[in-house]
Amino acid sequence: MPRTTSHPSAPPEPGPTAPESAPGPADLGPLGRLGGRCARHPLTVIAVWLLILVAALTGRHLVGPVFSDQVSLPGTASHTGADLLARSLPQAGRPSGKIVFHTGTGTVADRRSGLDRTLAELRGLPHVTAVGAPVTSTDGRTAQTTVTFDEQLKNLGHDYTARLDTATAPARAAGLGVAYGGDLDQVVRQPANDKFSEGVGVVAALVILLLAFGSLLAALLPLATALISVGVGLGVVGVVAGVVSFATSAMTLAGMIGLGVGIDYALFLTTRFRQDLIDGHDPVTAAARTARTSGRAVLIAALTVAVAMLSLYACGLSFIGRIGLAATLAVVVTAAAALTLVPAALGLVGTRIDRVRLRRRPVAEGTGARPGGNRYAALVARRPWLFLAAGTAVLAICAAPALSLRLGHVDAGADKPGSSTRTAYDWIAAADGPGFGKGANGPVVTVIDLSRAHTPADRITTEVTDALRATHGVAAFTPVRASPDGGILVTTLTPATGPQDAATGTLLDTLSDRTLPGALHGTGARAYLTGTVAGQADFRATVGERLPLVIGIVLVLAFLLLLVVFRSLVIPLKAVVLNLLTTAASYGVLVAVFQWGWGDALLGLSEPVPIESYVPMMMFAIVFGLSMDYEIFLLSRIAEAWHRTGDNRLAVGEGLSATARVISAAALIMTAVFLSFTASPTVVVKMLALGLAISVIVDATVVRLVLVPSAMFLMGRANWWIPRRLDGLLPRVRA
């Protein structure tokens, strides 16, 4: 029986140190030759990118992108219930929203004339098909009416708010406060404007670049190229959004990730370029060498991010998959700019890159194999077990809160105080009476399908009514009534708690698993919960079921990519484990801040909120992709030294000392960019921004500076182990 042999990836025998000669065109590889051509013709390349920028932004303006957070879940109970409702009660299934009226003194009835004129004006608005009779609270100070439309509310546009304001002006003139709630948030909620966040991120990045580089041109170059690539990327996303509907947070997320990785990629290339200049190469050759080495790492890093983001489609939810697509488009454009625009800019600036200095000695990547690396690397090498244990303990502490992670939906109660949606939510929650109370902001429609029932409808009505009365957590429900065609029974129930309260989720589970099946047992009828809150619960359950699949796909694809690139089984396995720890730590911080309320006031939140159901899935893909950036840049330098010297200890020390300063600067920049987006008015964006910032901090410090070197020092030559037969089967990747 043949025996499978294994071996570490064998490096060439190290020889005497000699000055490295400039590689010829054949040695540069495709990326090196591309970088060299761009550096030789910088003005042409820059002009082409500027034309692409103008074309992308113009195309976005002409196409008119559409963004919506509406989710369709065919096959779920909420979707089936909505279909039954639309067939038997078409009016009930049409888009609708609430308009709430409130007075601090007296009652709404005292101002009835102004309210009546407003209702008449609302009936005359375009796309309005019905305006319900006002429902008044017990104390008479709050009233609400339901407005039904013949058009999806997202299609009305934010400008429709002006029409609503005009129609409700008589009520305001009569002294009534007016606010818009329910699904009207799709109309009145202002589109997220994150220009301020982007500006803060850019300024912070410039300061860090100036401190890191010590040169004005070297600091401006990564920033300028990143801004151009982000502009193109957002233009492309906008054009695609004219055909494919993205979530409202997709554009912000694409800009946030694009800006972060764009500056990082340019930073890594610029530091390598400066080192090649210091080593005596001319600017064009230095740009070509930079594209060959650091450009290869950029390409692999961008590919890893793209694979992770596109893996979100595996969850089967187009809403989430398209957010990943938007981020992927931004990253792909950014990587293309890093491999062409950055070398062109470097070739144009050339040796003048350090002309305007803020410090005497410019910062660049280190070269040369120094035994043990710098003093820190030597310290880690002497006590690897201590560093490994300490780093693991820090991540475990950060990850501990994730054990109490609760998924949910952030409702209008978390909107900015004073906003129309938040005001409507608070008025309804604070009032008493039918249609009011905390649960009235998230009513649940129960639809009972009678198509296969063999029990009389009146008996089913009695059984369901008795069961709902006996169910804990149901504050009120409307009489169970049959549709005109007799095909369904319908009742709308009001939970005793708000939409994002954990008790509301428990109530939905109780209703669907025990209460309604028990009441309908033996009747042949089936019950379905529908409405916004029920749909969100189905969405949350679907995400929870498919999260392991997405995690598995991302892990396998990342493992295979690193296996092919680094020709090692141990390195990709270590990377997967460490990235899982990083993600768990970021989850833990999110739970502590948002769910437990530790410091939520600093983020502009008035109360603790659950973790938005799709945020963990999104964060896993993004964090895994971004953390691989630093993994690949560090391991690329370690692998270069390993293949040159064959000394694992020396290679780890050299890679760590050569990249520590650059990775730290890049992490600071990306952290600053992400943290600037915590000022966004959108809670989901705040969650993603904080989670990504924490993950970058943890990854660039605890993981890259502590766990990676300590683990690699401990494993020695085993880091580069791969079965010989497997090594022969894997494709050879040379960029």
From TrEMBL:
Q: Which residues cross the membrane?
A: 43-63, 199-220, 227-247, 253-271, 297-320, 326-351, 385-403, 547-566, 578-598, 618-638, 658-677, 683-707
Lineage top rank: taxon: Bacteria
Q: Where is the Membrane transport protein MMPL domain?
A: 74-384, 462-725
According to the record, the residues making up region (Disordered) are 1-29
**Keywords linked to the UniProt accession:** Cell membrane, Membrane, Transmembrane, Transmembrane helix
**Where located?**
Cell membrane
Q: How does it sit in the membrane?
A: Multi-pass membrane protein
Member of which family?
A: Belongs to the resistance-nodulation-cell division (RND) (TC 2.A.6) family. MmpL subfamily.
Which PANTHER family would you find in this protein's record? MEMBRANE PROTEIN MJ1562-RELATED, MEMBRANE PROTEIN SCO6666-RELATED
The name on file for this protein is MMPL family transporter
